[in-house]
Amino acid sequence: MVNRIPLIAGNWKMNLNISQSTALVKAIAEGIKGVSGVDVLVAPPFTNLYAVKQAIGKADIFLAAQNMHWEKEGAFTGEVSPQMLIDAGCTHVILGHSERRSLFKETDEMINSKVKAAHLTGLTPIVCIGETLAERENNWTFDVIRNQLKGSLKFFIEEGSLPKSIILAYEPVWAIGTGRTATPEQAQEIHLFIRNWIKDNFSKETADQIRILYGGSVKPDNSAALMSCPDIDGALVGGASLKPESFLGIIRF
Ligand code: PGA
How much is the average pLDDT of 89-116? Predict the structure, then answer.
């Protein structure tokens, strides 16, 4: 049995200005003093990354962007490259979030290009997957998850190995920002399915080491039950990551 360190990641989405962001991360840094056995990460909007990095200072908080382009540079108005994120202080990048997939029409193919570029540039991707309510009600959940894994991780399938640093996040779309959380049983079932898929397509060793986060209305009062599931290795938190009390409440699960 491998000991996977849980990761609690805050996805701030399009919220908070620079002073709010730096105040929040300083409060988190203060609140996690003395807390061990858990990794903490924040993902502010692009424009706040550098300031948040400065505010983090020496605190044990990882910095992620919420998206990026797969090209190194060039005529891509409005886009940000992997190297730019590293320059701003990022170690991680969230890719394929359901809001990117649905609102900005990102396909598995685009997400695969981003995952590949992030990995080759030295950023750790947090790859999001998850089914919609209609897909769940039609009993398509496993097919949808399998297809998203196959499509978004195509580069690694072709390479024949998946780096154990890659992070996956299962976020049922019907649970994001809705206050409706998957029950620990529902989440565990999919997490185990994902881990078995990694075992079948890569190796048992890789499957044992990869962290799979759960996301979708995670709050201080439901985090302990979710985190106690054997295949849930942390949380990707939206709404509840915007206030120090609630984010710290989840970190202290
Ligand atoms: P939520 O968002 O916690 O507000 O549901 C989660 C996410 O979108 O990552």
Answer: 98
Closest atom of ligand 1 to CA, residue 236: 9
pLDDT band at 1 (very low <50, low <70, confident <90, very high): low
Ligand 1 atom, smallest distance to 13 CA:
8
The CATH number for 115's domain is 3.20.20.70
Q: Which residues are catalytic?
A: 97, 171
Residue-range definition of the domain harbouring residue 236: 7-251
Q: Which among 245, 246, 244, 251 is positioned nearest to 224, based on CA atoms?
A: 251
Residue 2 lies in a domain: no
Going by the DSSP 8-state scheme, the letter that residue 164 receives in this structure is: T
Q: For the chain, what is the domain count? A: 1
Q: Which two tokens stand for residue 108?
A: 């598995």
pLDDT value, residue 122? 98
- In the chain, beta strands by DSSP E: 7-11, 39-43, 62-65, 92-95, 124-129, 167-170, 211-215, 234-237
